[in-house]
């Protein structure tokens, strides 16, 4: 059994990138740097609560948004070699729907683990919701909001947001399946 050649991404920063994605501190720069980097649809006043986990606000959705935004900014420093040409960051361009999801479904601390968080072209990359196939996000979760476009789109995988008519090819992420039969409605 031969091993495939492994290509590694290069990080264009001097600090180490954290591999622990728990609610520990992740520092990515000063507040002024963060507000300059914020996408147009993200609030520039999103507080940085990643410096000290003991000072987290009791608002879990805001805490998660702050951590996600800090991690996103840190991950953007990774430079990928060819053949990688397109990077989608749904937490930024689908910020409205993603933050609505957190406000509605992540109000309290929970011990959870998401596995396989690779956003499919017809799921989270369209909606900003984990395992978020469009029909499920709109009709079952009852979410709405504005979705922008990524800065650079792959022509065969355009983001049309909640207007997307396609679905995952085998079993859509979050489709009628074990989740819906178990929980019936949100």
Automatic annotation (TrEMBL):
Keywords in alphabetical order: DNA damage, DNA repair, DNA-binding, Hydrolase
Entry GO MF terms: DNA binding; oxidized pyrimidine nucleobase lesion DNA N-glycosylase activity; single-strand selective uracil DNA N-glycosylase activity
InterPro entries found in the cross-reference section: SMUG1, Uracil-DNA_glycosylase-like_sf
Gene Ontology BP terms: base-excision repair
Entry keyword annotation includes DNA-binding: yes
Signal peptide annotation: none
Cited PANTHER family: SINGLE-STRAND SELECTIVE MONOFUNCTIONAL URACIL DNA GLYCOSYLASE (PTHR13235)
Name of the protein described by the UniProt record: Smug1_1 protein
Gene: smug1_1
């Amino acid at each position: 059994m031969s091993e495939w050649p492994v290509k590694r991404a290069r990080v264009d920063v001097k600090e180490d990138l954290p591999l622990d994605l728990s609610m520990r501190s992740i520092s990515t720069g000063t507040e002024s740097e963060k507000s300059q980097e914020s996408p147009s649809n993200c609030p520039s006043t999103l507080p940085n609560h990643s410096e000290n986990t003991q000072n987290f606000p009791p608002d879990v959705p805001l805490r998660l948004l702050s951590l996600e935004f800090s991690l996103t900014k840190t991950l953007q420093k990774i430079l990928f070699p060819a053949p990688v040409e397109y990077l989608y960051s749904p937490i930024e361009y689908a910020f409205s729907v993603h933050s609505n999801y957190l406000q509605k479904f992540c109000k309290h601390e929970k011990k959870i683990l998401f596995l396989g968080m690779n956003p499919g072209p017809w799921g989270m990359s369209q909606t900003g919701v984990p395992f978020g196939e469009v029909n499920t996000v709109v009709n079952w979760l009852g979410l709405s909001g504005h979705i922008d476009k990524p800065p650079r789109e792959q022509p065969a995988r355009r983001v049309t947001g909640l207007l997307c008519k396609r679905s995952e090819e085998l079993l859509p992420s979050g489709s009628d399946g074990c989740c819906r039969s178990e929980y019936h409605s949100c």
